[in-house]
Amino acid sequence: MSKVSAEGSGPFGIPVDAAVAADARERLAAVEALLLESVHGEDPLLTQASKHLVEAGGKRFRPMLVLLASQFGDPAAAGVVPAAVVVELTHLGTLYHDDVMDEATVRRGQESANSRWTNTVAILTGDYLFARASDLLADLGPEAVRIQARAFARLVRGQIQETVGPAPDADPLKHYLQVVADKTASLIAVSGQFGALLSGAPPHIVDTITSACEKIGVAFQLSDDILDIDSEAEQSGKTPGTDLREGIRTLPMHLVLAGVGSGPDDARLRELLVQDLSGDDLHAEALALLRAHPAMDRARADLRRWAEDARTELLTLPDIPARAAFTGLCDYVVSRTG
């Protein structure tokens, strides 16, 4: 057994077996190289716009999941690195489109593509990244194409559901969790699925990793919900209460509106949550009340449950170093909100 590397050497600072960490770094470098190659085109503007977010960096969370999952088969299998690039290109393509829909001006600390160029250029760049992902995907076989197509359908469905909101007779909280599963967790699940499948892991391992990664994906989004409210800017990387200001209802807000918890300021907070909070005074009041509300503890409990459900599934996998890395991610997603 290889010795475990020092804290911080693995993804998100989790301890990772030294051999697994070295292999992941090597293959992640190959992912970066193929990612840059994939966005280079004959048109200078298209190349520049496509490289805009690639070169801005990012966690490369989805490619890392592909690489970790491949440890349950042959991590050197030919399709593993291209699959990691496919999921990252798909993710980046959605960011271009998201920024247009959200009228965002900044992405990853840089001017957003729609702000730097135009909405049209940003939309077409996102489309181009989807096309480049499909080109790579075609070499991975019909099953991989089918998996990606179904995940992409879920992703689009989640975006539409978020845009139109719940039906009048629907449970808003249930609707929100379905949006999270479709819009965010679907591609994270595919990342684990691709890594296991294309490395030749047995079918029951592929199924377990896919299911656990979907739960990790939901947990990551719920942790983002909590961090947006309860962290300071230097911790979360964005202005606290951004969702609140933009009228985006996340888990803690849904819990308040559903009557979870109680306190002397419940009525006032519910009144604020259905108002326009773009103004500084009302926003500050709502944020302070929300931070102090029992719904925040309930949101943390829900987050822990999703992470623990993922861990329970992961612990049925073979006891290899990659399993410890996956369970470390479950710890990380909870601890980042502590």
Residue ranges: pLDDT <50 for 5 or more in a row? 1-8
CATH-defined superfamily of the largest domain: Farnesyl Diphosphate Synthase
Terminal Cα span: 32 Å
> Approximately how much helix is present in the residues?
over 70%
Global geometry: globular
The domain count comes to: 2
In short:
The protein is mostly helical and 338 residues long.
Tell me what the structure shows.
With 338 residues, this protein is mainly α. The chain folds into two domains: 15-201, Farnesyl Diphosphate Synthase (Orthogonal Bundle), CATH 1.10.600.10; 203-333, Farnesyl Diphosphate Synthase, CATH 1.10.600. 70% of the residues lie in helices and 1% in strands. It contains 16 helices and two strands. The protein has helices at residues 18-39, 44-54, 61-69, 80-102, 113-116, 119-138, 142-164, 172-198, 203-230, 233-236, 242-245, 251-257, 266-273, 280-291, 295-314, 321-335, and strands spanning 106-107, 110-111. Strands 1-2 form a two-stranded antiparallel sheet. α9 (203-230) packs parallel to α16. The chain starts with 17 loop residues before the first helix and ends with a helix.
What is the topology?
Elements: H1 18-39, H2 44-54, H3 61-69, H4 80-102, E1 106-107, E2 110-111, H5 113-116, H6 119-138, H7 142-164, H8 172-198, H9 203-230, H10 233-236, H11 242-245, H12 251-257, H13 266-273, H14 280-291, H15 295-314, H16 321-335
Antiparallel strand pairs: 1-2
Helix pairs in contact: 1-3, 1-4, 3-4, 3-8, 4-6, 4-8, 7-8, 8-9, 9-15, 9-16, 12-15, 15-16
Organism: Actinomadura fibrosa
Protein name: Polyprenyl synthetase family protein
Keywords: Magnesium, Metal-binding, Transferase
